[in-house]
Amino acid sequence: MSELIPVEDVQSANPPGEEPSPSEAIRPRRRTSWLKVVGIAFVAALLLRTFVFEAYRIPSSSMESSLLVGDYLFVSKLHHGARLPITLGLPFTGLYFREVELPTVRLPGITPVERGEVIVFNYPPEDGPIDRRQHYIKRVAALPGDTLAIVGKEVRVNGTPLPLPPLARQVWVLRLTSDTGFSASGAREALGPDARIDRVGPRVRHVEATAEEAERLRVLDGVESIEPLLRPQGDGSAAFPSNPVYSLDDYGPIIVPERGVTVTLSEANWLLYRTVLVQHEGHRAQRVAGGYEIDGVLTDQYTFAQDYYFVLGDSRDDSADSRTWGFVPHDHLVGKAVLIYFSRDPRAPWWEWRWSRFFRVIR
Questions:
Q1: Per residue in 3-27, pLDDT tens?
Q2: Is 213 exposed, middle or buried (0-12, 13-18, 19+ CB in 10 A)?
Q3: DSSP 356
Q4: Largest CB tally within 10 Å, which of 7, 16, 238, 267?
Q5: CATH 3.30.70.80-classified regions of the chain
Q6: Omega before residue 349 within 30° of 0, cis
Q7: What mean pLDDT, rounded, does the chain reach?
Q8: Looking at residue 245, what is its pLDDT?
Q9: Rg of the chain taking only CA atoms, in angstroms
């Protein structure tokens, strides 16, 4: 039977009584020191990743132009408190023990979540342990207890308009004086070479642009007007809650769930809060003949167990966010996006980097 021997105990193959050469004597010690350095570096990286910050890459366009595809960023876990692991597995891999799931514990943070900041979170509709779900990044539009409404694309929180992020993109309806008087090359010069300009009818184009870019288009020859694209109420573009009343551009008003607040369940809010009760707070809830039943008890009152957030992508017409799948529970929160440390367009040659985006603070 072979026995495993610690590296420190391995001796050189010299005859009994003969001293090993200096090089042979120090080789095991050097190997041991090297392994210790690697082990310490691994543990330090794991601790930093768990409790301090983690690096992510932006894979989609839902946050353009605040964040671009190919941006690499740091996400702080200190701001809102690091969440301890819920599952046990092999670090830096997707392997974990599926039979083991720990309770959610979050360390104290240094700041509360603020309206308008960019957060990373685990995707709420996904199944499986929370910390193994896909990571999403969005901007916080409404906090727990806020009343949110979207009227004609304008987001209003507690009755006050929420400013559109300066680099946020949306679809605009561009109306022309004639098809021949408009220069598509001039428009691309105003918007950039990758501009999205779709012909949707005679003298009508759909253009994806920021507000600043839209103003540059407004003064071009052949342009009659440019206005934001507005989806009609009830067009089905907003999938949450599952009713035909809302659209991505006309939504609510709704009240974001807040920990410790009790609501009266009704026809008006049942579809809005049912997912919270069943999926995020673990109850059996259904509508019955006499009203509502939660865990077998007939009641029309419910007190929320945790805070929730309503989030939006900066590319408002090209984002799957709370309008599509619902609220973000506090226990899904990963951290606050704070800094872009590297950026490269994945469509460009590998040596072409977006130097102007290096070490840019995320606002």
A1: 333 333 333 344 445 555 554 455 6
A2: buried
A3: G
A4: 238
A5: 170-228
A6: no
A7: 87
A8: 84
A9: 27
Domain 170-228: top CATH class:
alpha beta
Q: What angle do CA 315, 363, 323 make, to 5 degrees?
A: 35
Alpha carbon separation from 104 to 26, 82, 296 (Å, rounded): 47, 11, 26
**Whether residue 119 has pLDDT greater than 80:** yes
Give yes or no for a contact between 265 and 286, defined as CB atoms under 8 angstroms apart: no
For 9-13, 153-157, 204-208, 298-302, which range has the lowest pLDDT when averaged over its residues? 9-13
Structure tokens at 60: 């989609």
Domain 51-86+100-153+232-261+304-361 sits in CATH 1.10.472.80: no
Q: Please name the residue ranges forming H helices in the chain.
A: 22-51, 184-191, 211-218, 270-275, 322-325
| Whole-angstrom distance, CA of residue 342 vs CA of residue 107 | 29
pLDDT 10s digits, 319-329: 999 999 999 99
| Beta strands in 221-323, from DSSP E residues, in sequence order | 223-228, 251-255, 262-264, 285-288, 291-294, 297-298, 301-303, 308-312
3-state DSSP assignment of residue 3: coil
